[in-house]
Design brief:
α1 (13-36) packs antiparallel against α2. The protein has helices at residues 13-36, 45-77. The chain has one domain. The protein is 65% helix and 0% strand. It has 88 residues and is mainly alpha-helical. The chain is built from two helices and no strands.
């Protein structure tokens, strides 16, 4: 993998999860559009596919920050898997 988690080391996930979720969506959309292109952009297929792979690697690492931020949010509020079941 060209891109690593180190790119986002020290980034407070709780603060950035929301914003990065939109960036991840945009990167995935960009990769999809590139894959659907007919090659008319002056780029040979190996370069286009390599660019798509790198874009998706960045999106994957950003998504990890989104997941960490969401889990921290749920943990702090007792939601999701951290929800305390009512015991009657």
């Amino acid at each position: 993998m060209i891109v690593g988690r180190e790119m986002f080391k020290g980034l407070p996930a709780e603060q950035w999860a929301g914003d990065l979720s939109y960036v991840v969506a945009a990167l995935i959309r960009t990769a999809r559009i590139a894959l659907e292109a007919d090659g008319g952009g002056g780029c040979i297929d190996p370069v286009r596919l390599g660019s798509v792979a790198t874009t998706l690697e960045v999106a994957e690492e950003m998504q990890a920050v989104v997941i960490d931020g969401n889990e921290a949010h749920e943990r702090a509020r007792g939601l999701g898997i951290w929800k305390k079941e009512d015991r009657a």
